[in-house]
Design a protein that fits this description.
- This protein is mainly α and about 170 residues long.
- The protein has 6 helices and no strands.
- The longest helix is centred in the middle third of the chain and has 49 residues.
- Bound molecules: zinc ion.
- The site of zinc ion has 6 residues, from helix 1 and helix 4.
Length: about 170
């Protein structure tokens, strides 16, 4: 048995009694889903512990422990997937919104303030305030900065082209 499996199998009891949470639970479920050995071990322990628990409480015994276990795992994975999709949706919409703001502002200020408003080190003409943006949105901030940098580069290339044209005209 490899180390991951033995580490995982130490957590079987905690999984069954529901005390596993967060990243530990995620790692555990992802592993047993892809590891027959650990899944078998989990199934055996699950039926044993659940049966003992039900007997102790005087509850009726479950008819199919395996099915019950798999249902629990699938429910957990379904919840994870929904959480992930929501995260992606909020990420994408926030990106589109901030990009749209970036474009609108840069076009607007480009006309009125010239090109220096985007330069680093000088006083900023405008600023989009990112306060309160959750950490997973850092990539969006980075993309906005990249957009800004690319724009500066493009503007510089236009300027150089202009200067070349002017000196050629003279
Ligand atoms: Zn394993």
């Amino acid at each position: 048995m490899n180390i991951i499996c033995s580490e995982n199998q130490k957590k079987i009891d905690s999984y069954i009694n529901g005390s596993l949470g967060g990243d530990e639970l995620k790692k555990f479920v992802n592993h047993v889903k892809g590891c027959n050995e650990c899944m078998e071990e989990l199934k055996i322990n699950y039926s044993l512990l659940k049966a003992l628990d039900q007997l102790e409480k005087g509850d009726e015994l479950s008819e199919d422990f395996d099915a019950e276990l798999e249902k629990g795992i699938d429910e957990y994975l379904g919840k994870q997937r929904r959480g992930f999709i929501l995260k992606v949706i909020s990420y994408v919409s926030a990106f589109i919104i901030s990009l749209a703001f970036g474009i609108v502002f840069s076009i607007f200020f480009f006309r009125h303030e010239g090109i220096d408003f985007l330069e680093k080190g000088k006083e900023e003409t405008f600023m989009i305030d990112f306060d309160g943006v959750p950490d997973f949105m850092n990539d969006v901030k980075k993309m906005n900065n990249d957009y800004n940098d690319n724009l500066i580069e493009y503007i510089h290339s236009l300027k150089l082209e202009d200067e070349r044209q002017e000196s050629a005209d003279e």
